[in-house]
From TrEMBL, chain A:
Top-rank taxon: Bacteria
Name of protein: Sugar ABC transporter substrate-binding protein
Natural source organism: Cohnella luojiensis
Keyword Metal-binding: no
InterPro entries, sorted: Bact_solute-bd_prot1, SBP
One protein family per Pfam: SBP_bac_8
UniProtKB/TrEMBL annotation, chain B:
Topological category with respect to the lipid bilayer: Multi-pass membrane protein
Location within or outside the cell: Cell membrane
Stated name of the protein: Sugar ABC transporter permease
Keyword entries, A-Z: Cell membrane, Membrane, Transmembrane, Transmembrane helix, Transport
Record-stated family: Belongs to the binding-protein-dependent transport system permease family.
Superkingdom assignment: Bacteria
One Gene Ontology biological process: transmembrane transport
Taxonomic lineage from the root: Bacteria, Bacillati, Bacillota, Bacilli, Bacillales
InterPro entries named among the record's database cross-references: MetI-like, MetI-like_sf, UgpAE/MalFG_permease
Length: 440, 282
């Protein structure tokens, strides 16, 4: 045997072993022992992946949970948001190896994961979650379920608001409470720009379409309709893009680069309002400490007088690994976490995570005046908004749809007709996803 | 005493095992994956479907075109800058070390830090535009115009890698015998003439080496578009590497992503072969 033959035999052997190991990993797991969560004898350590403030929220909740369940503990790995997805996608593609019991997933990604990896996540309805579901607003229920079954514990949400600088508004003589429609806001923005030089709103024109998504959601439409058809040609979607263009044409949109760009525009006062989800509160109080008391918030303007002003941007939910042997213990803890208003109140007060559990809104924290926002009852405003938020339909092709929408937005800001830009985007998206396109 | 014939292999085993697990297995597996497609979470064999899909995939062609535009402009530009810098440094009398280090620094800078600083400098009201306006020019939409965004990428990559190639050239130049230059100057050749008839031919193998390395690097381009432009505006800076990442990790289509990976491999093989042929080396 030549030495190359020997070498390749060795390597072939090794790769066979490697394949065998990979295959064995997910099949030979012991069956779940029911009721481990209530069993005081057996110690259970759960594992979870989450990012940022969510880690603290989960750890705090575990401390509270341990009063009744001293045998359960949790190890939360703090991994960057995008890294969680990379690791999760790779793990699921490899048949579920190396995944934790609990993982945090943003709402706009849930349906994508469920369609791409239908066997990867625990069906929560089978464990009895349906009985608890009515405590959450309708849009959140739709986002966390598929074909009538729950696959994620609803957690935080991002009811939208216009965070605005009171001092800039006052200097320009604009009364924020009088702004009811986007046209009102356009007029106000022009006054503010001419009197103070501040832009009406920031946008990462060529990389992100957050404003567009908020407007679509407010109008009750999204990239896709309920049946998963591409809805870019819907007159309401066109209306949202056209409204954005009006602000662009009037030079009221500050072009910022990425998240850092938005934050620095917030801090230096070069924009008068920032439309965002409730979670942006945390960033404002953290990054713009000097502006304490100068902030206010009002709901997104409506598209017509008296129209809907509720929308949502962002928010996430917790999913369970279906292959985990500790799935019952994980279910027990996560059900406690997501349906106990005291826990959710802590997550909100300490970490600024706005809960979707409706019973939380009657907690005292939600009725209080907010000092940073000049005594405004901002949490009550957001809490009241929650019930009216329409459901956005994300589907598994959400990431692709967003890429095409961002391209359409880029074209619109480069002076293309909104309806035309969206029509082209719809065609490209149809080509990529093989989905049907709704016509107008 | 004769060593038994298997003994060398025993010593090689650790290296071979690591190589097999971390290199051979993924390479073979992704090759298999490139013929598969995911149906409801299970991979199924799909024959040449993924490869056929390439031909109808407009975004793939856009990404390919972008990558080549950047490649064709950036690699020669950067190598020219590197070789000119190296020539000056080679003849410099003082501060040689200081310059060498300053030009090489970008190559060892943390990628994230470098791209954040570039994105801040290139912003609409960033440092570079402020400087342009200060000397009476108009600001440039660096990251938001299809053409300028490509220019910004080329600028960033060149900044990062020119010094690295310069150090390689510098090392090679120090091996060129002084006698060649002496003979050339006795024959009356100017400095410029010496550069083209002595330095460049002597550096040929090194130029080939850096050209291939840079070509491979640019074909795999990912970091800069990912951090600076996210492939935008409107796919103007989408590279194949970036499209591969999007396909795998954002659209969960690992089969097609593997196909794209093999397209890159094929391109690198072809281009390296062409470069060898063009320069006439064995």
């Amino acid at each position: 045997m030549s030495k190359w033959m020997k070498l390749s035999t060795v390597m072939l052997g090794i790769s066979l072993i490697a394949t065998a190991c990979g295959g064995a990993n997910n099949n030979n797991q012991p069956a779940a022992t029911p009721g481990t969560g209530d069993n005081n004898v057996e110690k259970v350590e759960l594992t979870a992946w989450a990012w940022n403030v969510n880690v603290g929220a989960l750890n705090e909740a575990m401390t509270m949970y341990q009063k009744d369940h001293p045998n359960v503990s949790i190890k939360v790995e703090d991994i960057g948001r995008l890294d969680v997805y990379d690791k999760l996608s790779t793990g699921l593609a490899a048949g579920g190896s190396g995944l934790p019991d609990i993982v945090l997933v943003e709402d706009d990604r849930i349906q994508g994961y469920l369609e791409a990896f239908p066997k990867g996540f625990q069906n929560l309805s089978d464990k009895g979650f349906d009985a608890k579901a009515d405590q959450f607003p309708a849009f959140k229920k739709e986002l966390t379920s598929k074909d009538g079954k729950f696959y994620a514990f609803p957690f935080d949400a991002g009811p939208t608001g216009m965070f605005y600088r009171k001092d800039i508004f006052e200097k320009a003589g604009v009364d924020a409470t009088k702004i009811e429609t986007w046209d009102d806001f356009l007029a106000a923005g022009q006054t503010i720009k001419s009197k103070t030089g501040a832009y009406a709103l920031p946008a990462d024109k060529f990389k992100d379409d957050a404003n567009f998504r908020m407007m679509m959601n407010e109008l009750g439409v999204y990239y896709f309709d309920k049946d998963g058809n591409i809805d870019f040609n819907n007159p309401k979607v066109v209306q949202a893009m056209a409204t954005l263009k009006k602000f662009g044409d009037a030079d009221l949109v500050k072009d910022v680069n990425g998240w850092d760009g938005i934050v620095s525009a917030t801090v230096d006062g070069s924009v008068a309002t920032i439309p965002f989800g409730a979670w942006y509160y945390g960033t404002i109080i953290d990054q713009a400490k000097d502006t304490k008391g100068k902030w206010g918030v009002f709901l997104l303007p409506a598209f017509e007088k008296g129209g809907n002003r509720a929308a949502n941007l962002g928010g996430s939910s917790w999913m369970l690994n279906a292959d985990s042997e500790r799935v019952d213990a994980a279910y027990g803890f996560m059900e406690y976490f997501s349906t106990t208003s005291a826990v959710q109140a802590v997550a909100m007060e300490k970490f600024g995570l706005f809960p979707s559990l409706q019973s939380t809104y009657s907690e005292p924290a939600f009725q209080a005046d907010n000092e940073f926002f000049g005594g405004q009852k901002i949490w009550k405003l957001f809490g009241d908004e929650m019930a009216n938020i329409p459901t956005p339909y994300y589907t598994k092709d959400y990431a692709m749809a967003m890429d095409e929408a961002v391209k359409a937005q880029a074209h619109v800001f480069m002076d293309k007709d909104p309806a035309k830009a969206l029509k082209e985007a719809a065609e490209r998206l149809a080509d990529r996803t093989k989905r049907a396109v709704n016509n107008g | 005493m004769r060593t038994k014939s298997y003994v060398p292999y025993l010593f090689l085993t650790p290296a071979i095992v690591l190589f097999a697990v971390f290199m051979v297995y993924p390479i073979l597996y992704s090759f298999l994956l490139s013929f598969q497609t995911s149906v409801g979470g299970e991979f199924e064999f799909a024959g040449l479907d993924n490869y056929r899909r390439l031909f109808q995939d407009e975004i793939f062609w856009t990404a390919l075109k972008n990558t080549f535009v950047i490649l064709i402009i950036q690699v020669p530009l950067m190598l020219t800058i590197s070789i000119v810098l190296a020539t000056f440094l080679n003849t410099a009398k003082s501060f040689k070390g200081l310059f060498r280090v300053s030009f090489f620094m970008p190559a060892v800078t943390s990628l994230v830090a470098y791209s954040i600083i570039f994105s801040i400098m290139l912003m609409g009201d960033g440092l570079i535009n402020q400087a342009l306006q200060a000397i009476g020019l108009n600001g440039v939409p660096w990251l938001s115009h299809p053409l300028w965004a490509k220019a910004a990428l080329i600028l960033a990559i060149t900044w990062r890698w020119a010094g690295y190639n310069m150090v390689i050239y510098l090392a090679a130049m120090q091996n060129i015998p002084e006698s060649l230059y002496e003979a050339a100057s006795l024959d009356g050749a100017s400095k410029l003439r010496q550069f083209f008839t002595v330095t460049v031919p002597q550096l040929k193998p090194v130029i080939l080496f850096t050209a291939i390395l840079s070509t491979i690097g640019t074909l795999q381009l990912f970091d800069e578009p990912y951090t600076l432009t996210k492939g935008g505006p409107s796919d103007a800076t989408l590279s194949i590497g970036m499209y591969l990442y999007q396909t795998g990790f954002r659209y969960y289509d690992f089969g097609y992503a593997s196909t794209l990976a093999y397209v890159i491999v094929l391109l690198i093989a072809i281009l390296s072969f062409v470069q060898f042929k063009l320069t006439g080396d064995e």
